[in-house]
Structure formats: structure tokens, C-alpha cells
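Entry for manganese (II) ion complex. Fields follow.
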Amino acid sequence: MFRVTTRGDFDGLVSAALLCVVEEVDRFQFIEPDALQHGEGSITHKDIIANLPFRPGCAMWFDHHTSNTTVRKFKGSWWVAPSAARVIYEYYSDGRLDEFEELVEITDRIDSATITAEEIRDPKGYLLISMTVHSKQMNDEPYWVKLVNLLKENDLTKIMADDDVRRRCESYYAMNAEYGEVIGLYSDLDKNVLVTDFRRRWHGEAGNRFLAFSLFPECDIWVKVMDHPSDLSLASISVGHNIFNHTSDVNVGELLSRYGGGGHKGAGGCRVHKEDANRVLAEIIEACKHD
Ligand SMILES: [Mn+2]
């Protein structure tokens, strides 16, 4: 009997479900990639690792991340696929996984962020279920195990009928709807720049991080400012390119590093003293505007 060691994100759960179909699996270990890389978690010859970096001594390894290569010999498969589920699906080509084609296809699109604006506004089916899975919420482990056991049966109607899944989907839906409303209330378009100011107005739980882009397709960059959640003397500013509209050539990480923040080309954040926030915000908006 094997144990599947995976990440508690949707790709990790689908990977675990597929492995349950093709191998003898009776246990799971959920761990974040950086924790595994720093030696946390135990790996033995009974472990099949999926959607995580390689660790010597495991039974098999399946992954798709460019940075996770190894020169060691291993059983399993690694290639730069859209998801680890895809790597597993292609490896077992004897027909036992054929019925999971649709699930693997949606997992590819979720893991490589190629979902559409409409799907972000109104997620359904497996996509909606994926929105209820957050890999850093480690006390959700019983929920992840339940989802793996439901996913391996590949019956969407049955999964959606589960009380826990249904409740989580409903609360995601409500939270996302509220997030859309407050974005609408507290945002203004300044040419190509969408500016959302939540300061002293809204401190709720954020919905989908791409929701603003499906609501304001005309912007090519989003600048959001809010009160820092724990330090009242600070404001948090985040900036991100519209994933559906690629006309911005602002290097966000570089821009925000001028204010003590950072990120990569497409997205980043910084925190500033709240007395400086209006000035910094105005400078950032100016740097993001173009004709
Ligand atoms: Mn993945």
C-alpha cells in the first residue's frame, strides 16, 4: 500500500484521486512545496510524490514544475505540462484513466490560469469546487481527503450533492458576489487604470483575484489600496496586469520596489505609511497610465 504525498491545491487533489485509481493507495500526506524542500514531512519508499519537488527515497514522483527537475533516476514522470494531473494521466496510458479526461482538462486550465472572464464571474462544476480548495488552510485536510475520495468516483452530481462541498461552494459564491459589489462601488477608471480604494470602507474577505478584470475588461492594469489588516499605521497597495488585456508594459515589481515593495513583471505589492499613501498612489497611477 502506498501513501500519496501531494499539495492541498486542486491539482494536488486531482493527482491524488487519479493515483488512487491506478495504484494501491490508503493514505495521504499534504505538504507545501517549500516545506518539503526544507526537509519537513517524511518520505519513504511507500510514498508517491505528486505536484511537489522530488525527494530521494520515494516510490514514484510525478510533477510538472520547470524548477523541479532532478538528475537522479526515479520511477514516474516529469515534464513541463499544464498540471501534475496531466503528467499522471499521460503516464498511465492503459485506459484506466480515460474517463477522467474532462477533469484533467479543467485541472490544466485551473493550474495554468487560462480560465475565461465569464468562468471567473460565474464558476460552475469542477471549477467552482476548485475555488473551495486553499492549499495553505492546513486544517482543511479532512475536506481534501473527502474530495479526493469523491473525485476518484468521477461523478460531479454526487460531489455537488455532498453537504460539505455544497456549503463551501455556496459561501464561495456569496463571498465572490460581495467582492464584485464592493469593487464596483469603490473603483474608478482613470484612462487604462482601474483604481480601487477600500481604505476605511471595506475590510472583508477577497473573492477571486481576477474578478476585477472580468468586471472592468477595459482596464489593462489594476491598482488597489486598502488598510493594512493588522497595522493601522499602514496602507497596502497592490498592482496587477489585466490577465485578459495585455496592453500594459509596466514592470510592476520594478515600479513597486521604489516604494519598498516588489513582485514580478505582472503583479506586485507594497506597504506604505498611511500619511504617504495618497502621494504614492497618485505616483503609481501616473506611472501606469498610457495613451
Ligand atoms: Mn500543479
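NOTE: The pocket of manganese (II) ion is lined by residues 11, 51, 64, 83-84, 111 (CB under 6 Å).
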